[in-house]
Amino acid sequence: MPIDLEVGGAYLPPIAQALLLGLPIFLLLDWVLRRLGVLQFVWHEALFEGALYVCVCATLILVMGA
């Protein structure tokens, strides 16, 4: 079961942990996809990046819950 972390006297719930941990993973994936030229085939780049971030965070939440 995920635990709450305390950062600077404030508790960080598991969802916030996943959102913060997902950001560097998303940035790395975004950089790799740009280097490979995959994003030139995407119709709406901002929508794709938002969906990618949601998928990364959802995967982290599933892994953290296991």
UniProtKB/TrEMBL annotation:
Pfam families cross-referenced by the UniProt entry: DUF1656 (PF07869)
Keyword set, alphabetical order: Cell membrane, Membrane, Transmembrane, Transmembrane helix
Membrane-spanning residues: 15-34, 46-65
Descriptive protein name: DUF1656 domain-containing protein
Organism listed in the record: Pseudomonas laurylsulfatiphila
Lineage: Bacteria, Pseudomonadati, Pseudomonadota, Gammaproteobacteria, Pseudomonadales
